Write the C-alpha cells for this entry.
Amino acid sequence: MNASAHSQKAKVNIRDSFWFLPTIYSLISIIAVTVVTVADYTLLPMIEKAIPDIFLTNQDIAKTLYGALITAILTMTTISFSTIMVVLTTYTTQFSPRTLQNFMKSRVTQHVLGVYSFGFIFALLNLILLTEDKKKALASPFFTVIVSIVCLAFFILFIHHSSRFVQVNNLIGEIRKNASDTIRQNFTKKQYIHARDWEKDDIEALTMGEVKYIYAEKSGYVQNINISGLVDWTKANDLLLEAQFFIGDYVQKGMPLFKYWPQADKTAELSPEESHPFLLVGNERTDLQDIEFSIQKLVEIAVKAISPSINDPHTAVNCINRIGSLLAELGSKYEVIRYYGDEEENLRLIMEPKHYQEYLYKSFYQIRIYGKHDISVMNGVLDALHRISAVNDKSVKEDVWKFGKYMMNAIDEDEMDELDYNYYKQIVEKLAAACHKDL
C-alpha cells in the first residue's frame, strides 16, 4: 500500500512535468531511428528492386537533405520558444502569474515541443549513422522528409494555439473549463464511505485516548490528498486521523499535519512517515483538487482588468460571469463532508471542509475592494449572485443572500445617478426574489 502511494505521488509529479512528453517523444525517436536503420541495411537490399526510385536516396543527397532539415527543425523550435516567451510575458503583465500554468501544462504546447524533439533527434541520428558507401540506396531520408512535414504541421498548429491562448476570452474559458472538471472530479462517487454527520458521543469515545501528531516533512502548498488511500492506511493501522489543513494551504516543515488516536495496541508500532505519500506538497498551488485556486486565477484577471493601468471592466465582468457559473455548479454538487469511514463504516478520517460561504467570500471580496467604485462591476457581481441563487437550493440561497448584502454595503447609493440607481435596484430586486427575501 505504501509502495502504491509512492507510485501515485511519483505519477502525478511526472505527469505535470514540462519535460515528460518531450522525453517520451525523444525515446520514441531513438526507437524509430533504430528500426529504420535496421530496415535500410537488412530488409531494403532484398526488396530494393520492387520500390520506386522516388522513395530511395543515395548518401550524398541524404547528407545534404539531413543538414537542411535539421536546420529547419531547429529554426521552428527557436521561433516556438520565442513565441512561448511572448505569451508568458503577456500572461504575467496583463493577466496573472498564476495563469502561466495553464499554458505551460497545455497538452498542445507539450506535444508540439515533443514532436520537434522527435524530428530533430530523428534527423540528427540518421545523419550520424550514414556510412561511406555512397552508392548504397537508403529509404530513411524519405521518412525524414515525412517527419519534417509533420513538424511543419505542428508548427502551424502551435502558432494558432498560441494566438488563441493569448486572447483573454479564450484564457478565461480555458480556466473555467479546467475548474469545472476539478469540481466534477472531486464530487463524484468515491471509493470510501463518508457521512455528513456522526454522533458526538461516538466521536468523543474514539478520541478518549492519547492524541499523537504527524508532522510535515517539508514546507509547501498542499496540492493533493489521496483520501481513499489514507482511509485504507488508517484501517490497516486501526487509528482515527484528523487533518489540520485544507487543500491549498501552505504548510511549514515540522508543523502538525494530522492528529491521530490509536484504536488498538498494534498502532504503537506505527511509523507516521508512512502517511506522507498520501499527501502531495509542492512549491506552488495547483488545480488538481484545489477549486479555490482555479477561481483565484479568474479573480486576479478581473482585479487587474479594473486597475487604472488597464481599465477594462468588460473583461472583469466576463471573469465575474465565469466565477458565477463555477459557484453555481459548485453549489449544485457541493457536499459538506467532514467524516470518512471504511467499508465497515468505522470512522477513520476527520477533515473539515471549506464551507460554501467561504468560496463565495474568496471569489468576490477582492473585487469588492478594488471595484466598489465601478457600478458596472458591482452590478456584474450581484447579477452573478442572482444566477447562482436561481439554480440552487435553500441553503445556498441563504449564503448568497448574506453575501449579497455584504456586497451591497460597499455601494454608496446616495452618490449614484438616477439611471445607475434604477438599474442597480432592478438587479437587487431580482436577487432578493431569487433568494426568497424581502427588501
User: Anything to note?
Assistant: Residues 292-332+354-434 form one domain. The first helix runs from residue 2 to 15.
